[in-house]
Amino acid sequence: MGLFSSTTYSNMDDLYVAQLQDIYDAEQRIAKILPKLQEKASSAVLKQSFGTQIAESKAQIARLEKAFSLKGESPQGHACEATKGLIKEAEETLAASGDEHVIDAALIANAQRIQHYNIAGYGCLTNFASRCGQDEASKLYAECADEAGAADQRMTQIAEGSVNAQAASA
């Protein structure tokens, strides 16, 4: 869905499917980067949180695949340029050297940016699906949005509870 694409949105259903394909691609990419973020983290609680996010991402992919099925579509993604950019930033953090606490703070920042994108995407899909008569899919997206919000809150608690203070002391 690039800025200068030839995409046509003739109706809400077209937009809904395009957004579903976008978030499906995003989740596929996120599922690949999360284990790397977990491995790079030095904080045990941060590693655990990334482990939770890995499991949630797998569940979200399964929900998206169910939503495709409910729509009568095969699961397929359309390159999510936003997530590609967010992952590129995370890869820069993965390649970084320096104080482990500062790197943990950077990993949290990366993860929260990703979660904020997911919160927005799933929020839109929840409404779009409902408006397209896909109420069961709408509930699946709401569940995904709730998980993304909870992951974001966990990251904030970890940052404010220990990591940022340790990073500031580096």
Automatic annotation (TrEMBL):
- Pfam families associated with the record: DUF892
InterPro entries xref list: DUF892_YciF-like, Ferritin-like, Ferritin-like_SF, YciF
Q: Please, which domain of life does this record's source organism belong to?
A: Bacteria
Gene3D superfamilies given in the database record: 1.20.1260.10
| This protein's name | Protein YciF
